[in-house]
Amino acid sequence: MTEQATGAHHPQPRARNGGSTPSNVEHVTGAQSLIRSLEEVGADTVFGIPGGAILPAYDPMMDSTRVRHVLVRHEQGAGHAATGYAQATGRVGVCMATSGPGATNLVTPIADAHMDSVPLVAITGQVASKAIGTDAFQEADICGITMPITKHNFLVTKAEDIPRTIAEAFHIASTGRPGPVLVDIAKDALQARTTFSWPPTQDLPGYRPVTKPHAKQIREAAKLITQARRPVLYVGGGVIKAGATAELKVLAELTGAPVTTTLMALGAFPDSHPLHVGMPGMHGSVTAVTALQKADLIIALGARFDDRVTGRLDSFAPYAKIVHADIDPAEIGKNRAADVPIVGDAREVLADLVQAVQAEHTAGNVGDYSAWWTDLNRWRETYPLGYDQPEDGSLSPQQVIERIGRLAPPDTIYAAGVGQHQMWAAHFIQYEKPATWLNSGGAGTMGYAVPAAMGAKAGQPDRTVWAIDGDGCFQMTNQELTTCAVNNIPIKVAIINNGALGMVRQWQTLFYNQRYSNTVLHSGQDTDGGPSGGTRVPDFVKLSEAMGCVAMRCESPAELDAVIAKANAINDRPVVVDFIVHEDAQVWPMVAAGTSNDEVMAALGVRPDFGDSADD
What we know:
Distance between the termini: 38 Å
Oligomer: single chain
Number of strands: 20
Radius of gyration: 25 Å
């Protein structure tokens, strides 16, 4: 993330070059130093739960007028809330937990943030420094545990190191390729007396992210773009993180090349734009999947050629040259060799590419993609996204999500869990702006939606936030609705309730002879489709009301719009709507795991016919 990141960029601590002792030195405890440091780096919200080792930090936090603490009900909720806050605001998300189980409960959201390159600082208490390594009560080596899933982590055993460490943690988390940083602080370091002054001197000699791309590589990329006949702009989440969406639109319109946005990049380019051909991948649009397969040039921007996009890697885009731009040099060539590798920040890469392509055009070199667009438009018209209404008159989950998207206020932020509802939310809600779609892309974390929506609403209190969740995901972290209710964080939650672990059930339908082993979630749910005659376990309406929410149930298409409108009108409390949907609905298109993208299925039993026998 550069200084021009999406949203209000998180203030970066300024380095000081040593010298005489500054006049603003304060005598404080390590805990007071920690809270002062958080104030100085601009952290305005912390999600966490106190416990023995971190407790010294909670006392001075009570006196802070600049840092708001949100007491969550589970540390996993704190981590996902910090991630949602970061994704919605562009600033660093902060979560806090105590040692041992408190810290280990943060492992899943830290791994999630690592996979999706989210700027996160996790602060954990640790047992006293002399007790480290003795198997003391509530001791866990959280630095060792999280080493593979953090961008960097710190163990602090001296009070005087706290300001510098916090400054460095926020700098590392938010610059270069963003990611999570863990700061583990021994309890005696929090209790010790020290001095506080700001800004501290940072000491990160090996950390120099490259942001400015190499001019020669930019010129080579521009030449390939104007020479290509079938180019595709393959846009990943890095474009949103770099605040580069305006530059992307300029490049796309300058070249006239089709744009495909990954699951992490929805909103980076307007869905409604005529150059947008959809989302690629396992459940991407037929046009996007096929465009990448038949391209002769792929310009990958802040994307990483992950397996969900490529399908079977050795058959992915066999005719394409690759221009791969990423701020992380480790991603370039990791999965697919790049003909033109470009290391740099996406915003600077795109700005330079625009100038280089303009120079090519001035020299008379303009790409002709007319035949390519004839093919693309034919595929778009022949294989549009769609769904069938259930024959029994029950609710279609796709229709529920589509109507939520149509009826929600402009600039609504959507957070999704993982599974079928996630893919339907990606397909049937239109994303026109960046940072309006939050989801767990790389890790695929069930239970992400509710706490992430909570964090997004805390960071963007004037925006409507809808969590689109499945009944399986919802049962993992719904306790954070209590957090929302008591902290005046009025999110809205749509439970897409099909009584099953939907995506797993879909795989069992397609690949396991309809043997539904351990995917049924409901017990005693109505079998006649009526509102009575059975007992729902759990009853999500009663459960949500018990947690301080307004709760409703919707079971028929006739009441759908009215229920959504009622939910949109309530803004003083969290709202939960239990949408009872048909259990057999499936996500299409689909590329089966481990197969080639050439084998994309538009619907069950429908293999697209592209009307060509030769691809080049």
